[in-house]
Amino acid sequence: MTQVSAHPKHFLSDKVEHFTESVIREMTRQAMQYDAVNLAQGFPDFSAPAEIKRAAQEAIAADVNQYAITWGAKSLRSAIARQMLEWQGIEVDPEKEIVVCCGSTEAMIATLLAVCNKGDEVVVFEPFYENYGPDSVLSGAKPRFVSLRPPQTAGGEWTFDEQELREAFQHQTAQHHTKAIIVNTPNNPTGKVFSRKELELIRDLCVEYNVLAITDEIYEHILYDGSEHISLARLDGMRERTITINGLSKSYSVTGWRVGWAVAPPAITNAIRKVHDFLTVGAPAPLQEAGAVALSLPASYYRELADRYRTRRDHLIPALEKAGFRCYRPRGAYYVMTDISAFGFANDVEFAAHLVKDIGIACVPGSSFYKHPKDGSQQVRFAFCKKPETLDEAGQRLEKLRSR
Ligand code: PLP
User: Fold this and answer.
1) Looking at residue 176, what is its pLDDT?
2) Residues 6+ positions from 27 with CB-CB distance below 8 Å
3) Which neighbouring-strand residues pair with 165?
């Protein structure tokens, strides 16, 4: 028998070779190892609303325990359509334009797999939510990054350069073609909420270059300082070229339920449904029923949710600033990006290691949100979706950093 060397690389896909392990989830593991306050991963450490937990228990007791219809339980799809009409004035046909997935994470990858071909490019603003790069690669596309620049003044906004964005759309060759832009508003990690003017520019470019928009709106209800969430699909000319992605995780504090969805015109929905069916068959049936109850909560629920997060933001930022961080004040979502230059560390990874081991707080190194690690080497991100006492404990531990 011929002996062939079983080099591990021989068995692996080239696609995976460039992926690093999720830095965010690795920081959560380190937080557990060092018994640190976990301000790294964006999951709440407080209870989900009682009425939706009850709805989930009732659905299980009522034996909603088998596969739901592949593209989502009717009750949840109807609730999604109702909410999009109520909040954004967008009319959606729940029979033809919605796919319920295992979290917005699956909705994003299923969408990219459904629309991308080899050689396609996907425009992504950076810093970016870390899944978008690998998602594009898995779908055969190449991400093309456009910078979001940090505010220059206290209280300023993250901005992008119009010309740089235009050039990303214009980058069309025989081999490369811009297929889509991913827009995440409110944004993780920056807390930026894209303005109408910015979204109109994106709209104009999508229409001019015949490009799709995939919008991740998972933080749509977490807004501060009077900022308004505008769905791209609501702008003239965008309804037929936008896939809107959302989910239960952030609005209802149930990140472990894994229920999310994509809303798109019928032909695209049809393609996403096929991919979704082969990827996961369906999202958890009883939790979809509870999701329908969640989406029927009154407007006051969302006001209180945003208010509670605003209080937490306004609690954490002064403690960080006192310790020496420069904070970029978020207008939405539940993260604060910070500049760590004042601490004199060579890079964000060394700083994050010191913070978790010696101070007892886990954060996410900024480089994990950039293509080139050096671009984020003086930034780290903190999540403030935590109980007030968790943030108090973090505040006390930050005192140690200050006196260092
Ligand atoms: N999109 C963004 C921008 C996120 O920040 C996160 C989680 O942190 C997700 C998607 C994941 O959402 P889901 O739990 O619905 O998969």
Assistant:
1) 75
2) 38, 40, 41, 352, 356, 362, 363, 364, 365
3) none
pLDDT at 1 over 70: no
The residues, any chain, with a CB within 8 Å of residue 60's CB and separated by 6 or more, are: 286
The string of DSSP codes covering 139-178 is TT-EEEEEEPBPPSSTT---B--HHHHHHHHH---SS-EE
- CA 242/CA 392 separation, integer angstroms: 41
Let me know if 346 is exposed, middle or buried by CB neighbors in 10 A (0-12, 13-18, 19+).
exposed
DSSP state of 223: B
Q: Is the CB of 249 under 6 A from ligand 1?
A: yes
**129 C-beta closer than 6 A to ligand 1:** yes
Query: What single letter denotes the amino acid at residue 110?
Result: A
Using a 6 Å cutoff on CB, does residue 104 contact ligand 1?
Answer: yes
pLDDT tens-place string over residues 304-313: 999 999 999 9
Instruction: Render pLDDT for 342-384 as a digit per residue (tens, 0 to 9).
Output: 999 999 999 999 999 999 999 999 999 999 999 999 999 999 9
DSSP assignments along 298-339, one per residue: -HHHHHHHHHHHHHHHHHHHHHHHHHTPEEE--SBSSEEEEE
- Indicate if ligand 1 lies below 6 Å from the C-beta of 395: no
Where do the domains of the chain lie, and which CATH numbers do they carry?
A: 8-48+300-403 (3.90.1150.10), 66-294 (3.40.640.10)
DSSP state letters, 28-61: HHHHHHTT-EE-SS---SSPPPHHHHHHHHHHHH
Asked if 103 contacts 252 with a C-beta cutoff of 8 angstroms, the reply is: no
Rounded Cα distance between 404 and 401, Å, is 5
Query: Helix or strand or coil: residue 340?
Result: coil
Contact 146, 124 (CB under 8 A): yes
CA of 289 to the centre of ligand 1 (A): 20
Interval between CA 175 and ligand 1 midpoint (Å): 31
pTM of the predicted model as reported, rounded to 2 decimal places: 0.95
Counting Cβ atoms within 10 Å, is residue 129 exposed (0-12), middle (13-18) or buried (19+)? buried
